[in-house]
Amino acid sequence: VILHKSARSVLLIDLGISSLQLNSDEKGFSFRIDSPLDMRFDTNDKLTADQIVNNYSFTKLHQILKTFGEEKSAKNIATHIINSRPIKTTRQLSQIIINVKGENKSKLLHPATKTFQALRIAVNQELERLPTVLSSATKILRSGGRLVVISYHSLEDRIVKHFIGHETSRCICDPKIPVCMCQHKPRLKTTGRNFHKPTKEEINQNYSSRSAILRVAEKL
Fold first, then answer.
1. What are this entry's molecular-function GO terms (predicted)?
2. DSSP structure class, residue 213
């Protein structure tokens, strides 16, 4: 979302998935709605969650769940997915994960949350594309403009944090080099606190905000 477009004074990047997408009965983003395993934001893209779930090797599937979902049960889930093929719907996949992890009725986080997150990230190449988005956003901001980014899990936030750190540094040389040789020119500067998290009151009003982290940087 760009505010004050003519001046490029504020650019807000909200990395969250919208309720419209989650509630779609065609996209397959949600384990609460039975739908085909698609998970593409752009239907012109070729890769789908169905292809990953039904065709990827154990090694590749395990790596996706472990890396993109930070799922502690990635190995067992990957094994059960392969043994349960073919899997065609979100309900089928969700039930397989519940069988591995249990219902977790006392917890607010659904057992399938991390697996669905991992598949969505892999399908849409979200982490690979994020640095390009951040760089393009920085480029179009005017001097003094603010780049505001809201991320919702540690993988995204790590990339945002690294990007801002890189773009606010005057030197990006290896620390072992005694004299700066890179001639790097920072494009951003930090503004106050490094990051902001939602208050308890905000989380009570909007539980989806519980994992949100907001970071702000100013264009030089």
1. rRNA (cytosine-N4-)-methyltransferase activity
2. E
**What's the whole-model pTM score?**
0.86
Cβ-based neighbours of 51, under 8 Å, separated by 6 or more: none
Decide whether 2-15+127-219 matches 31-124 in CATH topology: no
Tens digits of per-residue pLDDT, 76-131?
Answer: 999 999 999 999 999 999 999 999 999 876 567 889 999 999 999 999 999 999 99
> What's the pLDDT score for residue 207?
83
> How is the chain split into domains, by residue range?
2-15+127-219, 31-124
Q: Residue 168, SS3? A: coil
In the chain, % helix, strand, coil (3-state, to 5) comes to 45, 10, 45
CATH number of this structure's domain 2-15+127-219, picked from the four choices 3.90.850.10, 3.90.1170.50, 2.60.40.10, 3.40.50.150:
3.40.50.150
The mean pLDDT of the chain is 91
3-state SS class at 139? helix
- Residue 155 tokens read as 């993988």
Q: Answer whether residue 3 shows pLDDT above 60.
A: no
Q: Bridge-partner residues for 215, per DSSP?
A: 149
CATH of domain 31-124: 1.10.150.170
67: helix, strand or coil: helix
SS3 156: helix
